[in-house]
Amino acid sequence: MPLPEAGQALVRPRSGEGLHALALTNGGVDALTQKQKKKCIMNAEKFECAFDPQFNESHLWPIYMFRPVAFGITKRREKMKLLVLCAISLVLALHAGLAASEEVEDASEFNYDPRSKSGPARWGDIREEWRTCSNGSMQSPIDLTSENVQVVAHLGRLNRSYEASNATLKNRGHDIMLRWEGVAGSIYVNGTQYLLKQCHWHSPSEHAVNGRRFDLELHMVHESPKGEAAVVGVMYKLGQPDTFLSSLTKYIEWIAGTHEVQRAVGIVNPNRIKIGCKYYRYEGSLTVPPCTENVTWTVVQEVRTVSREQVKLLREAVRDDSEFNARPLQPTNRRPVQLFSPTDSKLECENP
Ligand SMILES: [Zn+2]
């Protein structure tokens, strides 16, 4: 099947028919490079994607999202669907919203299925207070490409000061979240203190580096006294197990096996989350509704490792019938992205 041109409507393939994946951006549909292709099969119940062995690269996740509105729906039906969506949005708008910097905890209203009316391209239509998901100009995640990254030495090492504290593991329906109940310490960015609140995992990674997505991404969500968020992202590729996840395995298994929504896990030390010294810095947003902007992102450059079983466990524990929980890449809109790389990395990165 030839790849459609950017902006061209896709035709829904018949059951069992293969279709190559396309990258999704707000600006349109971009054909992927040969390397990033993936074959997807659609049948009556399910839409499944698997690597096309011809293009497979062991640790490389392709950009896999589709533009859902383009799936062989006639314009008339599309209009009807939009009208229904508007009506639903209006009803939903009557419900009370969230505090601006908080991620949505009840995931039943949105999902990652590109064909669903609650999929990523429609998040902004679901609730009035989620409009930023559609019309924001500083959305996350983004592709961190060599072209848009400026290497700088002045940002300095990430100033982290964490402490062990009581935590609870929670199944949010779209991800597994570890929330610290007590004071778990903070990071300082540009003189502002942001307290560590929670961490959670996305698979595959949400951010990409030169078009590559990795197998997993951890987000450590911090909040300032003003309610602004600073998120630290750590990416993982398949390899040795991650020791922090290993320490939580039995609790995650418990949540997965018992269908329990949350479980106290005792004292958890955030310092056990290992991160490298160099990092990307840019201004973005939450990657789930309400997609609030003015989020300071720190994406650690060093890609760590996680075992296949650990990624599988996190995915299966969520039980949302989705194979992934990563939002499609968002346009950078010429946002500056800095990469902190010290001039003397041996001196600055290895000494505490
Ligand atoms: Zn996240």
From TrEMBL:
Tagged with keyword Secreted: no
Span of domain Alpha-carbonic anhydrase: 108-341
SUPFAM superfamilies, alphabetized: Carbonic anhydrase
Protein name (Swiss-Prot/TrEMBL): Carbonic anhydrase
EC number: 4.2.1.1
Protein family (similarity comment): Belongs to the alpha-class carbonic anhydrase family. Belongs to the alpha-carbonic anhydrase family.
Main location: plastid
Compartments where found: Plastid, Chloroplast stroma
Swiss-Prot/TrEMBL cofactor(s): Zn(2+)
Protein origin, superkingdom: Eukaryota
Keywords: Lyase, Metal-binding, Zinc
Annotated catalysed reactions: hydrogencarbonate + H(+) = CO2 + H2O
Zinc as UniProt keyword: yes
Cited InterPro entries: Alpha_CA_prokaryot-like, CA_dom, CA_dom_sf, Carbonic_anhydrase_a-class, Carbonic_anhydrase_a-class_CS
Pfam families registered for this protein in UniProt: Carb_anhydrase
Known role: Reversible hydration of carbon dioxide.
CDD domains in alphabetical order: alpha_CA_prokaryotic_like
